[in-house]
Amino acid sequence: MQRFRIREGLDVVVVEDDAGFASFAADQVCQLVQEKPDAVLGLATGSTPLGLYAELVKRYEAGLVDFSQVRTFNLDEYVGLDGDHPQSYRQYMRQHLFDKVNLRPENTHLPSGTATDLWAEAARYDALLKELGPIDLQILGIGENAHIAFNEPGTPFSSRTHVVDLTESTIEANSRFFASRDEVPRQAITMGIASILEARHVMLLAQGIKKAEAIRLSLEGQTTPEVPASALQTHPSVLVVVDKPAASQLTILR
Ligand code: PGA
């Protein structure tokens, strides 16, 4: 494992393999929960955090971490899928984390994708974040186009929780989780970039060569809404956990 500092508050940890990746990320979560048993965790879905969640389940089963007072907020949810739908993000979270550790169901928050008034639901989510937050540690993945949550290129940095139309590339990328492309929802409710930046600490996770350009542009490029994750350069405490392929375009490593 190697650690680099791009600048004060923006550190990059390059891990050797998948096991090291999951274990280092889990260390950050467990350390926080030990120090602050009622911590507020910001959670992400997708392929990247799966190893982290599996490691957290393992540590919980070994009695090494207690989630009984932890509160969680997920970044996003598909519009039109209720929490019981197999491809909903609530189901993903239940399958990989919520049902396998002692998180209390009432402490786990996701936007509802089936609210009749989606914008009212977005406002409710922001109000809840304000009431229970700030998030202590926000876990983030990143898209190949540097999106964070469903904030696609062009999303204002001032955005709060909102309803988005998914881009064709995101629909394509996410179709791997559905029986067919036609089944992928066309909209989602997502935390905005401003909501994400309010977290006290952010841990951005990326694996694989397909993320290398997004990682370079986000950490070393210009801060611009065209590169949503570049907003993290304005945050005071970001830890980026990457494997070697995802780190391969960073100039600090050359
Ligand atoms: P992934 O998705 O973890 O499945 O690569 C990340 C993202 O699109 O935010």
Give an overview of the whole structure.
This protein has 254 residues and is α/β, with parallel strands linked by helices. The protein has a single domain, classed as 3-Layer(aba) Sandwich (Rossmann fold). 31% of the residues lie in helices and 19% in strands. The chain has 8 helices and 11 strands. The chain has helices spanning 18-35, 50-61, 89-96, 118-132, 168-174, 193-197, 212-220, 244-247; strands at residues 2-7, 10-15, 40-43, 71-74, 76-78, 108-109, 137-140, 162-165, 187-190, 201-206, 238-243. Strands 1-2-11-10-7-3-4-6 form an 8-stranded mixed sheet, with helices on both faces. Strands 5-9-8 form a 3-stranded antiparallel sheet, with helices on one face. β10, α7 (212-220) and β11 form a beta-alpha-beta unit. α1 crosses α2 (50-61). It is globular and about 50 Å long. The model has no long low-confidence stretch (mean pLDDT 96).
Write out key terms for the chains shown.
254 residues; alpha/beta; Rossmann fold; eight-stranded mixed beta sheet; three-stranded antiparallel beta sheet; 11 strands; 31% helix; binds 2-phosphoglycolic acid
Layout of helices and strands:
Blueprint: E1 2-7, E2 10-15, H1 18-35, E3 40-43, H2 50-61, E4 71-74, E5 76-78, H3 89-96, E6 108-109, H4 118-132, E7 137-140, E8 162-165, H5 168-174, E9 187-190, H6 193-197, E10 201-206, H7 212-220, E11 238-243, H8 244-247
Parallel strand pairs: 2-11, 3-4, 3-7, 4-6, 7-10, 10-11
Antiparallel strand pairs: 1-2, 5-9, 8-9
Helix pairs in contact: 1-2
The structure holds 2-phosphoglycolic acid.
